[in-house]
Amino acid sequence: MGDVAVERTTEQLVHQYFSLGFEHKEILNYLKILHNRCISLRTLKRILAKLHLYRRKHFSNIEDVVRFMEGEIEKGSQLHGYRWFHLKCLQNDLVVSQSIVRELLWYLDPHGMELRKRKRLRRRQYSNKGPNYLWHMDSYDKLKPYGICINGCIDGFSRQIIWLQAGPSSSDSKVIGGYYMNALKMIKGCPKTLRSDFGTENTLVERMQKALHQTFNEATSERPPFLYGSSTHNQRIEAWWSILRKHNAQFWINLFEMLRDDNLYDGTFLDKSLVQFCFMQLVQRDLDEVVLEWSVHKIRPSRNSNSPSGRPCIMFEMPSLYQTRSYLIEVPSFALDALSLDCLFQEYPCDE
């Protein structure tokens, strides 16, 4: 019976990682490194066949794929590239090739594809030693005039999103501290260095980060635990905001601008409160979806970058595959619980 239970759990894990778009080798690495399950490629293929999970046969009805893509484009995915769209199809149990998605996208959204072809700005070189070596945090203010403030943090090495939260304030240091503390509780430690822009909203995080290093970082470090700098030196998170805008935020910007242009929103306290009541949890749901899609998508190699390529979640959770290690400073739960007393944690209005 024990073997049956283990096999069933392994099948569930295989189904989960396959649905995220992982390749065979990546699924095997996750099972081995994170779950201590060593199975062969042959066994994995047998499990996939048993679960009727395929990539190159039993393709979905093309009409179902078209309907799904049309729905996503209408919801605000006009600037998704075909690789990102292909991943969204896989995560919604649609079996379709990347080439078909590309052709359909040219037909369904030619304007969006043309926008994707515009040349990108060349950025300065960036280097990072490993996961949790340097985090970048910042606030995204495009929805702030409508009462929705987004704050996020990204791991510089893997580009894994540490947190991405929508709330009523991005200027309250206790709120930002709550985002930071929730992240630390999830991974049971703090980064070697955390970088942010200048601003009083980051002062509590700065104090907590420095206090944790003074108490639990036994190794001497050439880097300070917290760094302030201009936006140009916080390029990882600044660059990711443009990705967020293309894949999600532009939809909400357009919606709220339409309300304003139709004289249905004038920026009063009451109007902002109504927007928060009606839309805050919807925005957060979309942010969570973008984070998941981003975490499992593949970052392609770049000739002009020293950064590794691959899926952010794998680079963050399995640094040994990239000949490096995690620089996480381990922190016991009692210390995190004590610091949490100074923080405010997200509560949605009337979420019952």
State the distance separating the first and last CA atoms: 41 Å
What's the tally of helices? 13
Q: Round the Cα radius of gyration to an integer and report it.
A: 22 Å
Give the overall form: globular
**What is the top-level CATH class of the largest domain?**
Alpha Beta
Element string (H = helix, E = strand): HHHHHHHEEEHEEHEHHHEH
Biggest sheet: strands, sense, closure? 5 strands, mixed
State the oligomer.
Answer: single chain
Q: State the total count of DSSP E strands.
A: 7
Strand order of the largest sheet: 3-2-1-5-6
Q: Any idea of the CATH topology of the largest domain?
A: Nucleotidyltransferase, domain 5
CATH architecture tag of the largest domain? 2-Layer Sandwich
Describe this structure in words.
By secondary structure, the protein is an alpha/beta fold. The chain folds into 3 domains: 2-50; 62-116; 135-340, Nucleotidyltransferase, domain 5 (2-Layer Sandwich), CATH 3.30.420. Helix content is 50%, strand content 9%. The protein has 13 helices and 7 strands. It has helices spanning 2-19, 24-33, 41-50, 62-74, 82-91, 98-108, 110-116, 173-187, 203-216, 235-261, 269-296, 312-317, 333-340, and strands at 135-140, 149-155, 161-167, 189-190, 194-196, 226-228, 329-330. The strands form 2 sheets. The chain has a 5-stranded mixed beta sheet with strand order 3-2-1-5-6, with helices on both faces. Strand 2 and strand 3 form a beta hairpin. The radius of gyration is 22 Å and the shape is globular. The two termini are 41 Å apart. Residues 1-7 have low confidence and may be disordered. InterPro entries: Integrase_dom_put (IPR058913). This is Integrase core domain-containing protein. Residues 126-305 form the Integrase core domain.
